[in-house]
Design brief:
heterodimer, A: 328 residues, alpha/beta, 2 domains, 7-stranded mixed sheet, 11 helices, 14 strands, 36% helix, 20% strand, B: alpha/beta, Rossmann fold, 5-stranded parallel sheet, two-stranded antiparallel ribbon, binds thiamine diphosphate, binds magnesium ion
Chain lengths: 328, 319
């Protein structure tokens, strides 16, 4: 199968959907000739023009309002917030307006938009350009939250997200943009709310999100050399969450390691742990549920400190080993 | 305005220090010695120096992502700045902040900012605090043309105006916010015209003329210090380099860049000082060379400085 990058996969989804559905448009900072800060929308303004690929001033609240309002009257906007950190400026419209409109209006309105935004550390961009704030959105009823880990998922999930009738926060990872993977040329979608077992194994379940899926898969290959077979489960959509796939895996392996980049305290791992502990998988657990997450610190600039702020492959291997062999 | 000989020389020296620091920063980046991103203000030195030189040494400055110039103009130690840029423990922020977060709180620089417009509401707080404490200092808040379109700008200017806070808002209009031309981002001619909406004076100054910026800020600073409230100054200038490390300049022409380079603020000021006899060509050359030497020494300091220790990674989140 043809291989393209995560960024190309996202662009391809945008292009195909804009060709198919004239209600779809792109709006954000520098998404036009500049192509977006990470080059994701490069070339789209040339094809669709400035009416459908709209450069905005640095007005994040305005962007969030623009996609909410336009969606409310029948458009299907795809907004971009240049760095997830700046969603903080857009929160009012996203949380108080977009997320609640349908419910507050008694189900009489829909707000079908996608807000794309890159999260994550690893680029040396320091504390205000490296955060993973997905769990802020997970906490808000009315929003869906998607976090693709591969080019295939990125394309398939984005298409589903655009076609979904709800506001969807689509969290990309900066370090994944240049990663290549197989993406079919024929049309396909990946439904929201379906997890995927990315690797099968019987000794331990690793539930990981976004870039941590990739790191967990690498860890799993190395663990296999020492006789530990890890199953890697990628929820892909944090909300709605495919609990069944995760629980089924844990029932089989009896051990679970949760890995995400966001800070541990208040992170999605806590939610996953609670879901697992509260399910039938509880009876199958042979060891306490372990969370491996970003440290509870802002991301530091220094390269070494930055690297050690969030889980790396070696950390995942060590945590998995401890879980399987017992605390050593 | 009366200009002392030493002050003029000092302004030129500072402009060269900024230029030298940033050329070095660019080089270190290209060599892979620093990671992350950086925003160079090459071509905008008159704006930083003109503005900060109009302050008292104990006044405060709030800076931006494009903040090396503001920091140097505020009298930062280039060794500690370069060390921060290189992520070293001896840097202003112990290597935790990097280019986008250099702060010298002891020296009155309350920090560069990674968030566009992030400094504007802070300026309200600093101004309010100064007023409550009945102190005679003021705060100069730098921000870009792009920041002027964020809600933060409008809230901050209004609050500073209604409470007559000792703030000088300095908009460095360098014509672009990344790729978005100010002409497409703002429906009026001068950002300074927005001052009227908040009930404060608005002045548009030639941001490549260090003395013009100095004069505009001097007036605004006096006004702020006297308790008459804030002002908005728009310093019209241009960034020569790309927005950050990754910029293919797809949104502007080479001709435009060259035309602005011909208005180099350092050359202009030098020519003026030579013409009026303040300086000889040799003096000017010496100033330039000294600046590059200071920066070389800063690199040596930074390179020989220790990295932060990994064990300290969780330090400093809380007081
Ligand atoms: C709130 C926010 N939105 C977006 C960004 C990304 N960004 C960084 S600099 C920049 C452009 C800033 O333009 P301007 O204020 O004119 O300053 P300049 O870069 O031209 O000095 C943008 C959009 C950011 N840092 N903060
Ligand atoms: Mg600008």
């Amino acid at each position: 199968m043809r291989e393209i990058t995560y960024a190309e996969a996202i662009r391809e989804a945008l292009r195909e959907e804009m060709r198919r559905d004239e209600r779809v448009f792109i709006i954000g900072e520098d998404v036009g000739v500049y192509g977006g800060s990470f080059g994701v929308t490069l070339g789209l303004i040339e094809e669709f023009g400035p009416q459908r690929v709209i450069d905005t001033p640095i007005s994040e609240l305005g962007i969030a309002g623009a996609i909410t309002g336009a969606a409310l009257i029948g458009m299907r906007p795809v907004g971009e917030i240049m760095f997830m950190d700046f969603c903080t400026l857009a929160m009012e419209q996203l949380v108080n307006q977009a997320a609640k409109i349908r419910f507050m209006f008694g189900g009489k309105a829909t707000v079908p938009f996608v807000l794309r935004t890159p999260a994550g550390s690893g680029t040396g961009a320091a504390a205000q350009h490296s955060q993973s704030l997905e769990n802020w959105f997970v906490h808000v009823p009315g929003l869906k939250v998607v976090m693709p880990s591969t080019p295939y998922d990125a394309k398939g999930l984005l298409l589903s997200a655009i076609r979904d009738d709800n506001p969807v926060i689509f969290v990309e990872h900066k370090l994944l943009y240049k990663v290549k993977g197989p993406v079919p040329e024929d049309p396909y979608t990946v439904p929201l709310g379906t997890a995927e077992v990315k690797r099968q194994g019987g000794d331990i379940t690793i539930v990981a999100t976004s870039i941590m899926v990739r790191r967990s898969l690498e860890a799993a290959e190395r663990l296999a050399h020492e006789g530990i077979e890890a199953e890697v489960v990628d929820p892909r959509t944090l909300k709605p969450l495919d609990e069944a796939t995760i629980i089924r895996s844990v029932c089989r392996t009896g051990r679970v390691l949760i890995v995400h980049e966001a800070c541990r305290t208040g992170g999605f791992g806590g939610e996953l742990a609670a879901v697992i502990a509260g399910s039938e998988a509880f009876d199958y657990l042979d060891a306490p549920i372990v969370r491996l997450a970003g440290r509870d610190i802002p991301i530091p600039y220094n390269r070494t400190l930055e690297y050690h702020s969030v889980p790396q492959v070696d950390d995942i291997i060590a945590a998995a080993r401890r879980l399987v062999h017992g605390a050593a | 305005m009366e200009w002392s000989h030493d002050k003029l020389i000092d302004m030129l020296r500072t402009m060269w220090l900024i230029r030298a620091f940033e050329e070095k920063a660019e080089e270190l980046y290209a060599l892979g010695k620093v990671h992350g991103t950086m925003h160079l203000s090459i071509g905008q030195e008159a704006s930083a120096v003109g503005a900060v030189s109009a302050l008292r040494a104990d006044d405060f400055v709030l800076s931006t992502h494009r903040g090396h110039g503001h920091c140097i103009a505020k009298g930062a130690d280039l060794n500690r700045m370069m060390a921060e840029f290189m992520g070293k423990e001896t840097g202003y922020c112990r290597g935790r902040g990097g280019s986008m977060h250099i702060a010298d709180t002891a020296g009155g620089n309350l920090g560069a900012n990674g968030v566009v417009g992030g400094g504007l509401p802070l300026a309200v707080g600093v101004g309010l605090g100064l007023k409550m404490q009945k102190r005679s200092q003021i705060v100069l808040c730098f921000f870009g043309d792009g920041a002027a379109n964020n809600g933060a700008f409008h809230e901050a200017l209004n609050m500073a105006a209604i409470w007559k806070l000792p703030v000088v808002f300095l908009c460095e209009n360098n014509q672009y916010a990344i790729s978005l031309s100010v002409k497409k981002a703002i429906a009026i001619e001068h950002i300074a015209d927005r001052a009227a909406a908040y009930g404060m004076p608005g002045i548009t100054a030639d941001g490549n003329d260090v003395l013009a910026v100095h004069e505009a800020v001097s007036q605004a600073a006096s006004r702020a210090r006297e308790g008459a409230g804030p002002s908005l100054i728009e310093s019209v200038t241009y960034r020569w380099r790309g927005h950050s490390k990754s910029d293919a300049n797809r949104y502007r022409t080479r001709d435009e860049i060259e035309a602005w380079k011909a208005r180099c603020p350092i050359q202009r000021f030098t020519a003026r000082l030579i013409a009026d006899g303040t300086l000889t060509e040799e003096d000017a050359d010496k100033l330039r060379q000294e600046a590059y030497a200071v920066v070389e020494a800063a690199v040596a300091f930074a390179e020989s400085s220790p990295e932060p220790r990994l064990e300290t990674i969780e330090e400093g989140v809380y007081a």
